[in-house]
Automatic annotation (TrEMBL):
Pfam families registered for this protein in UniProt: Pribosyltran (PF00156)
E.C. number(s) listed in UniProt: 2.4.2.10
Catalytic activity entry: orotidine 5'-phosphate + diphosphate = orotate + 5-phospho-alpha-D-ribose 1-diphosphate
Residues at which 5-phospho-alpha-D-ribose 1-diphosphate binds: 97, 101, 103, 123-131
Source species: Leuconostoc falkenbergense
Family: Belongs to the purine/pyrimidine phosphoribosyltransferase family. PyrE subfamily.
InterPro entries: OPRT, Or_phspho_trans_dom, PRTase-like, PRTase_dom
Binding positions for orotate per the UniProt entry: 127
Protein role: Catalyzes the transfer of a ribosyl phosphate group from 5-phosphoribose 1-diphosphate to orotate, leading to the formation of orotidine monophosphate (OMP).
Keyword Magnesium: yes
CDD domains, per the entry: PRTases_typeI
Name of the protein: Orotate phosphoribosyltransferase
Length: 211
């Protein structure tokens, strides 16, 4: 059986989707500075990488949410992966906009009718969970039952865990910050002082918040 978690973590490092910069941190939209940046949008440009992802996500959903009826993609990065997973599982699909359309029917979800159906949403990564939890709320507002969320990668931030607990939703990720770090260390991608910085950031990212 393929170890998709390790395969995908290695893929992300190999294609340069993950960048480390402890000395000159990246700034996220939330205002938090981070020594790591993950761009999973790059994965769709690599056929074998995206195959590992959709096969891994398919197995993850089968194991964690076997009763799923509809696969949903969170705009925009989750949409292509949701399409491949929906095809693998032979399930209907939806995608969820970041906000409702300002014309026509004003819908926020497109595709299958979610009313009284069990939905699993796919996003590219989980940090604090804000955008994907908003998507889940949109699906629920249209009558769907969100079983949970799956993603390619999770930063494993405490804020994200708390936000999902508050929303009474679970999430599963194909690979995680801890797995990625362990692999990066074994590959020799990081110096000892960089490893320490990255570990400290995960424990208390709020200390890096931009002014």
């Amino acid at each position: 059986m393929t170890d998709y978690a390790n395969e995908v973590a290695n893929d992300l490092l190999e294609i340069g989707a993950v960048k480390f910069s402890p000395e000159a941190p990246f700034t996220w939209a939330s205002g938090i500075k981070s020594p790591i940046y993950t761009d999973n949008r790059m994965t769709i440009g690599f056929p074998k990488v995206r195959e590992n992802i959709y096969c891994g996500l398919t197995e993850l959903i089968k194991a964690s949410y076997p009763d799923v009826e509809i696969i949903g993609g969170v705009a925009t990065a989750g949409i292509p992966h949701a399409a491949w997973v929906a095809d693998q599982l032979k399930k209907p699909m939806i995608y969820v906009r970041s906000k409702p359309k300002d014309h026509g029917a004003g819908r926020q979800t497109e595709g299958a009718n979610v009313t009284n159906h069990k939905v699993v949403l796919i996003d590219d990564l989980i940090s604090t969970g804000g955008s994907v939890l908003a998507a889940a709320k949109a699906v629920e507002n249209e009558g769907g039952n969100v079983l949970g969320i799956v993603s390619i990668f999770s930063y494993e931030l405490l804020a994200g865990v708390k936000n999902f607990e508050s929303a009474n939703l679970t999430f599963k990720s194909l690979t995680t910050y801890s797995q990625l770090m362990a692999l990066a260390v074994s590959r020799g991608d990081l110096a000892a002082d960089q490893i320490e910085t990255l570990n400290e950031w995960k424990k208390q990212p709020e200390k890096w918040q931009a002014n």
